[in-house]
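Review this:
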Amino acid sequence: MKTLVNHHHHLSRTHFYSPNLSNPSPHLHLHFNNIRPTHPPLCLPSPFTEMHSPERLQRESWMLPTTTTTHSSSNDIALQLPELKRLLQVLKERRGRDSKGGSFGNRPGRVSLVGTGPGDPELLTVKAIRAVEAADLVLYDRLVSNEVLGLVRADARLLYVGKTAGYHSRTQEEIHELLLSFAEAGANVVRLKGGDPLVFGRGGEEMDFLQQQGIQVKIIPGITSASGIAAELGIPLTHRGVANSVRFLTGHSRNGGTDPLHVAENAADPDSTLVIYMGLATLPSLVAKLMHHGLPPDTPAAAVERGTTAQQRIVFAELDSFVDEVKLAELVSPTLIIIGKVVALSPYWPHTSIDDSHVRKMEEACL
């Protein structure tokens, strides 16, 4: 494997990979440190629902007055509540008619918490597709790709409940009440979440709330970002003789700070793989803590923006230069971080790979 570091000019090791384009080979983007990188490198629209995206406006046009031409975060709820109430009333009336006709109209609806994977619509499970196609109302997060939302029936309703840093279209409590209200009205409600609903997706909170209210909840798992993105890059999260365990961490901080909440001394295990979700903002503190607790500075690391989509961008570096390289590439959310010796097993790792004979010796030691 070729080494991509020029020791005379110190090139950044930024690897841009676009798996869904017609050319499946990776795009290698090298730049000198004094040259500002193009951002994003492929100038493609986001595969996800951004706060004021035209796709979101089009999906939610049923809720907005026809005279509305702009969409402001300050009046989201005020604009949408009248139409939400009308939709709720329609569902209740339909349930009443079904009840008089002797059908199952007296029964409450159900809620399915559905994981959609890391972004590539081809990673959606068959069960998830069937749930989406059967939905009356779909509440979806930001990290559900536009292609997945294209599977929703034309007569179903979509409602964005996504969250980004500094902007929550709905509080978690409001999401709970929306799910409950429409399920009680007899609707088949699908709650779409990126990745897996029970891996840093707050799906457990929603399930617990609804079950306490007597609502039937079905969990349909999705491929979590750690698995989907690692597979895309050819990184085995565990590997005999290299990594005997894997740990998923959240990079979230308390009250929007820069210090990650859950990085303890035992996370700095050189024989384990760390996968950090939502860790871009707290990355400098996280890396400093890991090295302080003994993780070697030459530990391989990768940061993957918008993994498994056509807009995927990757930064590979050793831990001691990782923060600087990520900053230079100007990665944005969502970005997944993978730290551990297994990263060097990726065919796209731009440094000298782990010596094969060394790997074999470590594997034999485990026999």
The longest helix spans residues 76-100.
